[in-house]
Design brief:
The chain is an alpha/beta fold. It folds into two domains: 206 residues, 3-Layer(aba) Sandwich (Rossmann fold); 235 residues, Rossmann fold (3-Layer(aba) Sandwich), CATH 3.40.50.2000. Helices cover 43% and strands 14% of the residues. It has 19 helices and 15 strands. α2 packs parallel to α3 and α6 crosses α12. It is globular.
């Protein structure tokens, strides 16, 4: 393979890290990074000094506002100049993705679908579902998140041997190294960011599907269960639900600490008192760039993702790479792959079993955390209480998280992207991609042919 292109609507930290991983394993094969625009409505990513060169089709535009034909012609022109043999594309919808797909097809370029949809997030029915099946035929292979995503696309008629996992990856080394460094400066960072001594962490957009109301209700249950509960809840993120969430906090009798803005009146009012004097409550830190997020992972006790539905949940990858136990809704697309069945190595099994209040929670424990029903705030509240009382189990789960995260590296993304591209070209080597492991040197040599 002489070269391949990889297209996303906008390149953020996740995308840059994956392309870097792909380039590290691609050998002599050229990798062309293309984005539709450098802005989107939902994400406020910055990429100062990005080491990965990216071709932007429409600089300054919002990707969701781009017209079909504009994307089609610009993508076709860029691909014609780059001459890749295969192109990895972000699914077949919305219309901008479809335009890029058709641009590649009209040039005779083989296409690989990148997708993280699973049965729990699929919305198409009737005619729309049939149209979806037809669109899938335009792809020559697929790179998806994990087991639920593979099952879903196989059920739509995509041959299983053409579906590869490993799409969802973050820069594990970055988060692991940053978290390790920040833990050497705990006192200074707690003072600078006015972080409580102990806290559960939520990080992500404040939108309905994230189910943050249930998290707040669960936190209220956790506090009600014991007058000795001292672990706070830190929420990093922003979005349309923010004021609604703060209002719910007050309805539930939860102390609210707004630390999202330097000029916050509430922040100034509390700045004179030490953080250790703050009553256990909810701290809002606003949206933070990737450079700051490892601080919150490093100092947190556990990470919580309560989504009602979630294609994957990359923040779970980040938290795990940072060495945190994770508590994840079973509706999240990552739960089956990232939370391994079993109990954490080295934990006190007898104490764990005796301390779990509800029998149902015994089926929720995993090696690196818990899964839970996103509609049960009581269940989540019990899990939070358990994690607070058992620091030894938290530590064991955090170690397991770091171990499991290594399997979902950007290099793993790159290897499987290359395998998918070779499958799309009809040049896959069975002895490589059907084995349980991938011989990287053999794969790179084959790509140079």
């Amino acid at each position: 393979m002489k070269g391949l292109a990889i297209i996303w609507a906008q390149y953020g930290p996740y995308h840059l890290a994956r392309v870097a991983g792909l380039r590290r394993v691609a050998g002599s094969a050229a990798v062309h990074a293309i984005e539709l625009s450098d802005r989107t409505r939902d994400y406020l990513w910055l990429r100062p000094g990005a080491g990965c060169p990216v071709t932007t089709l429409v600089p300054g535009a919002v990707s969701e506002d781009l017209g079909f034909w504009k994307v089609f012609f610009l993508a076709r022109r860029a691909l014609a100049e780059m001459k890749p043999q295969a192109c990895l594309l972000p699914s077949y919808w919305p219309k901008q993705s479809l335009a890029a797909l058709l641009a590649a097809k009209c040039l005779g370029i083989r296409t690989v679908m990148m997708n993280e949809t699973h049965a729990g997030t699929a919305r198409a029915t009737g005619l729309a579902a049939r149209f979806k099946r037809r669109l899938l035929r335009l792809f020559d292979a697929a790179l998806v998140g994990g087991k639920p995503q593979k099952r879903y696309f196989a059920s739509l008629g995509l041959p299983e041997e053409k579906i590869f996992a490993g799409y969802d990856a973050v820069d594990n080394d970055y988060f692991a190294n940053e978290a390790r460094a920040h833990r050497l400066n705990v006192s200074g960072l707690r003072t600078k960011y006015r972080l409580p001594d102990h806290f559960f962490l939520s990080l992500g957009r404040f939108v309905t599907k994230k189910n943050l109301e249930t998290l707040l209700q669960a936190y209220r249950h956790y506090l009600n269960a014991s007058s000795l509960s001292q672990t706070h809840l830190v929420m990093v993120g922003a979005g349309p639900e923010e004021e609604k969430l703060k209002h719910l906090c007050r309805e539930l009798g939860l102390s609210v600490y707004d630390k999202s803005r330097a000029d916050s009146t509430e922040s100034h009012a509390r700045a004179q008192s030490p953080v250790s004097a703050e009553t256990a409550g909810v701290h809002f830190y606003g949206f933070r760039q990737i450079e700051e997020n490892p601080i919150f992972y490093a100092l947190g006790e556990a990470f919580v993702l309560p989504s009602l539905y979630e294609e994957w949940g990359l923040v779970v990858n980040e938290a795990m790479a940072s060495g945190l136990p994770v508590v994840v809704s079973h509706a999240a697309g990552c739960a089956e792959d990232l939370l391994e069945l079993g109990e954490p190595e080295g934990s006190d099994r007898q104490n764990e079993q005796l301390s779990i209040e509800a029998q149902t929670l015994r089926s929720r424990v995993r090696r690196n955390g818990f899964v839970f029903d996103p509609r049960s705030s009581e269940e989540l509240g019990h899990i939070l209480g358990y994690l607070e009382r058992h620091p030894q189990a938290r530590a064991a789960m955090g170690q397991e998280s770091a171990r499991i995260a290594e399997k979902f590296s950007c290099e793993n993304f790159g290897r499987n992207a290359l395998l998918a591209a070779r499958e799309a070209l009809g040049t896959s080597q069975p002895e490589v991609h059907r084995s349980t492991g991938i011989n990287q040197e053999t794969l790179i040599r084959s790509l140079g042919k």
